[in-house]
Amino acid sequence: SNFTHGFANGVTVRGMPILNSYPETVRWVSSNGGSNGNDGTFQRPWATVAYAVTHADFTAARGGIVMVKAGHAETISGAGTITMSKEGVAVIGMGVGDNRPTFTWSAVASTWAISAANCAVQNVIVTNSIDATTKAFNITAAGATLDIEVVDSTSLIEFERAVLTSAAGDNLYVKMRY
Question: Among 88, 124, 137, 141, which residue's CB has the most CB atoms within a 10 Å radius?
């Protein structure tokens, strides 16, 4: 719901208070029923994160969120396939284990670029279908957070470098599971 004045006594669902408030829009992505012709809501999600991070009505530095539904799959096929260029945007995967969103790199030079400050990618699986991807995440802005699981598709297909950062990529937080 969108209540401009909020709730004076907070909101509780099944006895659990909702603690977070988001100052900006939350948009949704799903492989199941998603279409980039939709409006990005939970009921009408977009099809790709690549579309969501560039078309969402986020205001820079206000904390826009792209929620990626469990089971989503997306291919990173070229340089900057996904480019996070609005400050403060977070891409958050739903689900646990193998049901988390999976992003597959399909070319040596394919990248997920983070060129705006204070962006995050959390709870997603990163894998590849080609050997020696040189910079899966290319980070050129400060304050980025990566909390991802890297899974090589076979023992013969591996990332050469999962993260490449420039001098501007200060205050980088990386938590990677292999």
Answer: 137
In this structure, what token pair is assigned to residue 9?
Answer: 């006594």
Cα atoms in the Cβ-side hemisphere of radius 13 Å centred on 117:
7
Tell the residue number behind the tokens 């969402």, with chain if given.
56
Please name which of 92, 140, 89 lies closest in space to residue 114, comparing C-alpha atoms. 140
**From CA 143, how far away is CA 158, in angstroms rounded?**
27
**How far apart, in whole angstroms, are the C-alpha atoms of residue 25 and residue 63?**
8
Residues present in the chain in total: 178
Query: In whole angstroms, what is the distance from residue 129 CA to residue 118 CA?
Result: 29
CA–CA distance from 118 to each of 92, 142, 171 (Å)?
14, 6, 9
The tokens describing 25, both together, are 């829009």
Residue 175, Cα to own-chain centre: how many angstroms? 14
